[in-house]
């Protein structure tokens, strides 16, 4: 014979058991992050290229790294004017404010992919991992498959070669 427990006393015990079992896996949960319009610029040489996208965090997050098997080095970069010179530098961290879009685009914030193992060709897809830190300091990863294109999706072809105005 099994002793009978009233259902009302069993429910809290079951809930506590489920929480205890699930708690260790909470750190592996996907961060609340929307990734929109992601693309990587096609490259004819193995020197390097860049990845662009729009990120919207649903919780306090910081982008602290990026990796991809197609590049020896992958970094979060920013470009900004320093006097009359445009400078590019690696960033250790990029805060992603909750609900505010952070644009990674040509001429601004972007993901720099350097020391490519081979040129990345248009119409390919490249695996890319974003490394994020949440408000509690836990690092989590978001795996993406990013399309490669010669120009930003939705942009129109230029009417001839680009010209530099000085």
Measure the end-to-end span. 92 Å
Give the biggest sheet.
10 strands, mixed
CA-atom Rg in angstroms: 22 Å
Q: SS-based structural class? A: mainly beta
Which characteristics define this entry?
Immunoglobulin-like, 10 strands, globular, 166 residues, disordered C terminus, mainly beta
Molecular structure report:
The chain is mainly β and about 170 residues long. The chain has one domain (about 30-150): Sandwich (Immunoglobulin-like), CATH 2.60.40.1890. The protein has 1 helix and 10 strands; from the N terminus they run αββββββββββ. Strands 1, 2, 3, 4, 5, 6, 7, 8, 9 and 10 form a 10-stranded mixed beta sheet that branches. A hairpin with a 6-residue loop joins strand 1 (about 35-40) and strand 2. The chain is globular and about 40 Å long.
């Amino acid at each position: 014979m099994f002793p009978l427990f009233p259902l009302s006393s069993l429910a809290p015990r079951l809930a506590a058991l489920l929480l205890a079992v699930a708690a260790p896996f909470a750190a592996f949960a996907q961060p609340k992050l929307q990734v929109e319009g992601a693309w990587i610029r096609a490259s004819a040489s193995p020197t390097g290229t860049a990845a662009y996208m729009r990120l919207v965090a649903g919780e306090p997050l910081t982008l602290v790294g990026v990796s991809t098997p197609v590049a020896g080095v992958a970094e979060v970069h920013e470009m900004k004017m320093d006097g009359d010179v445009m400078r590019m530098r690696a960033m250790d961290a990029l805060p992603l404010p909750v609900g505010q879009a952070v644009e990674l685009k040509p001429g601004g914030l972007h993901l720099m992919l350097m020391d490519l193992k081979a040129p990345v060709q248009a119409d390919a897809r490249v695996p890319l991992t974003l490394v994020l830190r949440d408000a509690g300091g836990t690092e989590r990863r978001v795996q993406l498959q990013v399309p490669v294109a010669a120009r930003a999706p939705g942009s129109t072809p230029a009417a001839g070669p680009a010209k530099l105005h000085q």
